[in-house]
Amino acid sequence: MKNNPTDLLPVSAHALSADPRLRSVIRQFGSTYGYDYLDDGTVGRLLAEHEASLRRTASGGLVWSAGIAGTVGIAWLVWAAAGGPGNVGLAVAPPVVLLALAVAAFVRVHRQGRRQLRHPFLEGYRHVLAAALAHGVPVTLVPAWLTGRGGGEVEAAPLPSYTAPPGGAPARPRSARGAATGASLPPKPAAVAEYERIAEQGGWHDETGWILVGAGAVGVGYAVVQDVPAAFAAVLLVGFGVWTWVAGYRLGRRQGELAAEARRYLSRLTEAQAAGAVVPELSPSLRKLLDSPL
Question: pTM for the whole thing?
Answer without folding.
Answer: 0.73
